[in-house]
Amino acid sequence: MAAEARTPGHGPLSGVRVVELAGIGPGPFAAMLLADLGADVVRVDRPGGPGLAIDPAYDITLRNKRSVLVDLKAPDGPDRVLDLAARADVLLEGYRPGVAERLGVGPEACHARNPRLVYGRMTGWGQDGPLARRAGHDLTYLAVTGTLGMIGRPGEPPPPPANLLGDYAGGSLYLVVGVLAALHHARVTGTGQVVDAAIVDGASHLAAMIHGMFAAGAWQDRRAANLLDGGCPYYGTYETADGRYMAVGALEERFYDEFLHLLGLPDQTPPRTDIARWGELRARIEARFRTRTRDEWTAVFEGTDACVAPVLSLAEAPHHPHLAARGTFTDHGGLTQPAPAPRFSATPTAVRSGPARPGAGTQDVARDWDVPRLLREPRSAPAHLQRKASS
After folding, report:
1. Which H, E and C letters describe the chain, residue by residue?
2. Peptide bond before 50: cis, by omega within 30 degrees of 0?
3. Beta strand pairing call for 245-249 and 235-239
4. Which of 164, 172, 162, 180 is nearest to 197 (CA)?
5. Are 353 and 344 in contact (CB under 8 A)?
6. How many CB atoms neighbour CB 8 within 10 A?
7. pTM, whole model, 2 decimals?
8. 193: which strand partners?
9. Could you report the per-residue pLDDT of 107-150, keeping only the tens digit for each?
10. What is the pLDDT of residues 263-315, one digit of tens each?
11. Which residues are catalytic?
């Protein structure tokens, strides 16, 4: 397999070196975000996986990275990773608590080689607590935080919000925030540290405003009974004549008045502040939206401040005029994908390279990071040691 070309430095994190110990879910997404921001991310893949159940060529979370293959269960496997850690600014891992230590690449071993290293740990339950060593997934982490319980209609099961709210919002983004804060501290003091990013912590933190409203008596602890959870008739989604949907967010009075006018509702609608009559108001809005198709309603609300938008599919989104004008999506190597975000005036970011193929960057990384051990033929561990190191 041909070696990957060295990715040029672009973005505000140009010059920052990151080691990513391969996993699935929030860890790879966090590493992708750092890579999008310009960091030189080296993903340490292990022979045979892990990965998504798709061709790696389509795994967008592998973009802007380089990959090396290391068998951490081989006798010299940990030393190869420690050589990388010695030259890195950041290391990211997403194993269960204690696994990295058993593999010989935990924080203590890494900091012995590089005291300035920021060691980012991504888990669902966190590094301690009764459930720390238990298995879980995005949905189970959200379930215990109260976040999942806020979503959906009463009398129906709460719907899984893909893996966006837990894995990525409560997990990846908090890991990146923590890593960047710790990186700043390391550059000021010369001392690295461990960042314990847990999805249960991040997802709970995301609901800070809601907890404040609940304490003040401004939020009911039940679904679809509040301003922002689908209970309010002028903040929600409505089906159109063709079985598609429109999203309405007309919270402020002037936006609401424009919404009613364009929707064509009579002036006799119930007062929007009369919660007892929200059901009546919702029924009237539902009936109106069912009289036209989604595209017809889109044309009605186009260019207005009524805060109404069509609900688009994944395939439709890149073609929305506003997103197209901003370049919110981009094409790289024939693969349509979200462009890096956010945007920077002085240090612009870009999709510099496609998904890293496992091991394809070994030669270049060995040269650029001065880690010749990566090029040596790995030695296999005895079978009993492989079993002992297994997670």
Report:
1. CCCCCCCCCCCCCCCCEEEEECCCCHHHHHHHHHHHCCCEEEEEEECCECCCCCCHHHCHHHCCEEEEECCCCCCCHHHHHHHHHHCCCEEEECCCCCHHHHHCCCHHHHHHHCCCCEEEEEECCCCCCCCCCCCCCHHHHHHHHCCHHHCCCCCCCCCCCCCHHHHHHHHHHHHHHHHHHHHHHHHHHCCCEEEEEEHHHHHHHHCHHHHHHHHCCCCCCCCCCCCCCCCCCCEEEEECCCCCEEEEECCCHHHHHHHHHHHCCCCCCCCCCCHHHHHHHHHHHHHHHCCCCHHHHHHHHCCCCCCEEECCCCCCHHHCHHHHHHCCEEEECCEEEECCCCCCCCCCCCCCCCCCCCCCCHHHHHHHCCCHHHHCCCCCCCHHHHHHHCC
2. yes
3. antiparallel
4. 172
5. no
6. 10
7. 0.92
8. 118
9. 999 999 999 999 999 999 999 999 999 999 999 999 999 999 99
10. 999 888 999 999 999 999 999 999 999 999 999 999 999 999 999 999 999 99
11. 137, 167
| Contacting residues for 65 by C-beta, under 8 A, at least 6 apart | 20, 31, 32, 35, 41, 42, 43, 353, 356, 361
What's the CA gap between 165 and 324, in Å, rounded? 25
Output the six-digit token pair for 302.
């186009």
Structure-token pair, residue 50: 């892990």
Distance of CA 29 to the CA centre of its chain: 6
For residue 252, what are the contacts with CB-CB under 8 A and spacing of at least 6? none
d(CA 136, CA 169): 17
Residue type, 49: G
| 62's tokens | 């592998």
